[in-house]
Design goal:
The structure is a single chain. Helices cover 24% and strands 21% of the residues. With 248 residues, it is an alpha/beta fold. The strands form two sheets. A five-stranded parallel β-sheet has the order 3-2-4-1-5, with helices on both faces. It is elongated and about 60 Å long. The relative contact order is 0.14. The mean pLDDT is 93.
Length: 248
């Protein structure tokens, strides 16, 4: 018995991995979050497969559905948006299923924060600017530990990607001002690689008003840091930089 936890990617069906596509094509049962997974991904599923949305189900109901179908010997896929390791609640599902001696395999996906950077044609790690990427969120129905408040994380001045927080962007920006300058660039990326995708560019001083004007309240990432503005050439390909494959 095995259940596959599959990352569906950011939305564009061409950004799902080959392995994930192959598993979906052979699946007998697929359980997915209909509000998060792009419907185009479902085109890889066989018409005779059983497809369930997890949106109205509780944790126990989801686990029971997965367990029941796996014990029938069917190929079962739990389909997550992006990559299941980021705000995916994957671990608790796997822990419960393994209590029933059900093997679980995780197939990684392309996260939306990577799709957002690609859309902007930007690198999070820019020499001389930032070599650290922080992925976080603001407290909501799920609390964030006090030591991980955005105001504390902002003090590092690193490149930052903020998930699940666009509805509280005013609060987010207030927190970020504890560490970043008011002119620090910000990009809000809405539905990256999906229908209706949009990019809003600004800085800590004006991004809230720009987002309000667009009426965006969900399905968007907030990207913050000087990586959005500044560039410095990498040393890797510099004519003055040697390594094991290229000597001066």
């Amino acid at each position: 018995m095995k259940i596959y936890f599959v990352g569906s990617g950011p939305g564009d069906p061409e950004l799902i991995t080959l392995k994930a596509k192959r598993i979906l094509e052979k699946a007998d049962v697929v359980v997915y979050a209909s509000s998060l997974v792009d419907d185009r991904i479902l085109s890889f599923i066989r018409p005779e497969a059983d497809v369930y949305t997890s949106a109205p189900l509780t944790f126990r109901e989801i686990v029971e559905l997965l367990r029941r179908e796996a014990e029938k010997g069917r190929v079962v896929v739990r389909l997550h948006s992006g990559d299941a390791s980021i705000y995916g609640a994957m671990g608790e599902q796997i822990a419960e299923l393994e209590k029933h001696s059900i093997e679980c395999e995780v197939v990684p996906g392309v996260s939306s924060f990577l799709a957002a950077a690609a859309l902007l044609k930007k690198e999070y790690t820019v020499p001389g600017v930032s070599q650290t990427v922080i992925i976080s969120r603001i407290s909501g129905r799920t609390d964030v530990p006090e030591r991980e408040r955005l105001s504390l994380l902002a003090e590092h001045g690193a490149s930052m990607v903020i998930f699940l927080s666009i509805a509280k962007i005013d609060e987010v920006i207030d927190e970020l001002r504890h560490g970043y300058n008011i002119d620090t660039p910000v990009a809000v990326v809405y539905r990256a690689t999906r229908e209706g995708e949009e990019v809003i560019l600004g800085n800590l001083g004006d991004i809230c008003e720009k987002v309000r004007e667009k009426g965006i309240k969900k399905t968007a990432l907030i990207l913050v840091g000087n990586f959005l503005r500044e560039t410095e050439n990498s040393k890797l390909y510099s004519e003055n930089f040697s390594h094991s494959y290229r000597k001066l």
